[in-house]
Specification:
This protein is of the alpha/beta class. It contains 10 helices and 17 strands.
Length: 377
């Protein structure tokens, strides 16, 4: 596939959606009050910057940083001034074209966002509310968070916890929220700290980093699996008690291995998940939330029928609001803000394009936050 990065564009297509342009439209600018509400301040242009993925007639994918208008946004009952988004593995696949994540074109990628409501026809939200969005197909079938503006369905939103800034929330976002859902799944299955250690695959990545920190904060003995020796000190600082090489799990293993841990959080799938299950103690469980290695599961039924091991599927995209609210409440109370800063790097919107291949290749440690506040003009 052809990827063209950082090309400025004035006009890309004649679609209503996805057209890149500069427009002279103006509305009232705004400022944040002490209460976090938005008040009118003066005129401002409704044009904004966005990463836009298109596909030409030959099927080749193009990615550009474009200037768009609110008129180009998709349907929805809440319009948001996006302050921050993030670059997740799925976003990396979408931008780099490594997998068919995008299911309609053109598309603004970004599976999550945090920002302030500019206007709302939804009964739950009003102008000035601070909100978060994770999943629900944004960045795949609906314009996502890698833009300075978004228009979405209000049912997809949850309130941004008072204890987080937008950038801090996006340092967690889909990865951190998914890690919390995995921990909650293990807790519901009765995997408490006194049951034994919990292993985390892809521990230096986005989900893995937050999972290690959360488990350590809750008193678990954490075994971190990583293929990058240079991240060992980083993982110990997050709370890992033991570090094992990725190769210990990623190769072909035994149907039933020696019991090593009470539970696990897996982002990889494939042999890694199979080996994690085969070494889980009697009555233990593994929460699976990713497929960075493979969608396949070359496993035996032995762990399930001989040790009563459970495989817990964790979905973050369509999770019900009740689970989302609980996850964000737990994150607000558990996350060490200094550790959060240590696991995240903030980049400008334009750098999302060049960073996408790096996150797919596994070269990014922790979380990439994309700051998307509307530029001064």
């Amino acid at each position: 596939m052809v990827i063209r990065r950082f090309q400025s564009c004035r006009r890309l297509h004649h679609h209503r959606r996805g057209t890149c342009h500069t427009r002279g439209d103006h509305r009232l600018a705004s400022r944040r009050t002490r209460t976090g509400r938005i008040e009118a301040e003066g005129p401002m242009s409704t044009s904004f910057k966005a990463v836009l993925i298109t596909r030409d007639d030959d099927g080749a994918q193009q990615v550009r940083l474009c200037e768009m208008s609110e008129a180009d946004l998709m349907d929805g009952d809440v319009t948001i001034a996006v302050a921050a988004s993030s670059l997740n593995y799925k976003d990396g696949l979408a931008i780099s074209g490594k997998a068919p994540v995008v299911r309609r074109f053109p598309m603004v990628p970004g599976i999550d966002l945090a920002g302030t409501v500019l206007s709302s026809a939804h009964p739950a939200w009003r102008e000035g509310d601070r909100v978060i969005l994770n999943g629900f197909g944004v960045g795949e079938t609906h314009y996502g968070g890698l833009a300075e503006r978004a228009r979405v369905n209000g049912d997809w939103l949850v309130p941004l916890p008072d204890g987080f800034t937008e950038v801090q929330a996006m340092a967690l976002c889909t990865a951190g929220y998914t890690a919390m859902l995995c921990v909650m799944a293990l807790e519901r299955h009765g995997i408490s700290p006194d049951r034994g250690p919990v292993v985390v695959s892809g521990a230096a990545g986005g989900v893995g980093s937050v999972a290690v920190g959360l488990l350590a904060e809750l008193g678990y003995e954490v075994i971190a699996s990583t293929g990058r020796a240079e991240t060992h000190d980083y993982l110990r600082d997050l709370g890992a008690m033991e570090i094992i090489a990725r190769d210990e799990l990623s190769g072909e293993g035994k149907p039933l291995a020696k019991e090593r841990w009470a539970g696990g959080i897996d982002v990889a799938g494939g042999h890694t998940l199979a080996n994690m299950l085969s070494a889980t103690r009697y009555g233990g469980a593994v929460a699976a939330c990713g497929l960075a290695e493979s969608m396949a599961l070359p496993a035996s039924v032995a762990p399930f029928i001989l040790r009563g091991v459970s495989l817990l599927g964790v979905d973050s995209v369509m999770a019900p609001v009740s689970l989302r609210l609980e996850a964000w409440r737990r994150l607000e109370n558990l996350i060490d803000r200094d550790k959060l800063a240590a696991v995240s790097t903030t980049i400008p919107l334009g750098m999302a394009i060049e960073s996408a291949p790096e996150i797919v290749a596994g070269n990014v440690r922790g979380r990439l936050v994309v700051e998307t506040r509307l530029s001064d003009s």
